[in-house]
Amino acid sequence: MDAKTxxxxxxxxxxxxxxxxxRGRILSGEWAPGHRIPFxxxxxxEYQCSRMxxxxxxxxxxxxxxxxxxxxxxxxxxxPQSQAAILEIHDIRAEVEALGLPYRYELVSQAERMAAxxxxxxxxxxxxxxxxxxxxxxxxxxxxxxxxxxxxxxAVPEAAGERFEEVAPGPWLLSRVPWNAAEHxxxxxxxxxxxxKMLGLPRHSPCLVVNRRTWSxxxxxxxxxxxxxxxxxSLVARFAPQKG
Length: 244
Known about the structure:
By secondary structure, the protein is an alpha+beta fold. It has helices at 11-27, 40-47, 51-63, 92-98, 169-174, 193-199; strands at residues 36-37, 67-70, 74-77, 82-85, 103-114, 129-139, 142-152, 181-190, 206-216, 219-229, 233-236.
C-alpha cells in the first residue's frame, strides 16, 4: 500500500514518524529555539504523505508546547516557558520536567574560599569558610538556568567532602539542612559575556535573576543566584488580603 493512503493503511504510523522525527530534532538541539520548521507542503513532499497527516503532527507539537504556529510565517521551535513561585524554594529539575523536557545537570566548578568583606552582604561573616559552586541546568539540549552558589561550611560542614557532580546542591541541601527563613531578591539584567556563554544567549540578552539566601536557626546556610533567559521564565506569587 501507498504511504499516502489514509486510515489504517499507514497514515497513522507515518503521523507518528513525523511527530517523533520533529520532536527528536527539537529535544536533541538540532533545531534550536526560533528555528523555522519546514512548511507543511515541504514536509508532505519529504514524507510522501498528505498535508492532512503533516497538519495533524504539527497540531500535536503545538498543543504540547514544542512549536508555535504563526499565521503566514510558518511554524517555529518554541522556547519553553517556565513559571516558578516567588515565595517557594523550588526544584529546578521539577521545573524542567513540568515542561515535558529531559533534565540534565552539570557542575562547572567547585572550590573553597574564605568569606571576605563583600560576602557580608550575602549574610556570611568575614572569615567564614565557603564552598563555591557554579552549575548549569539543561532543558533538553538547551541551557535552562545558571546557578552560582556559596554554602557556609560553618552551617553545613559535610558539604566540604561532597562532590556535587551527580546531584545539584539545591536538593542536596534541602534533604540535609532544615531552614527556617529565606529571602528572595528578583531583578532583570542584561547578560554579560560569561552569562551569555553559559546560557547560550547573545550578549546583552535580557535575563531574570533570582537571588536567594536561607538561614537555619538564624545561621546563614547558603546564598544562591539563579539566572534564566528572560524570555523563558516568569515568577508567580499567590496571596490573599490580610484579615482584620
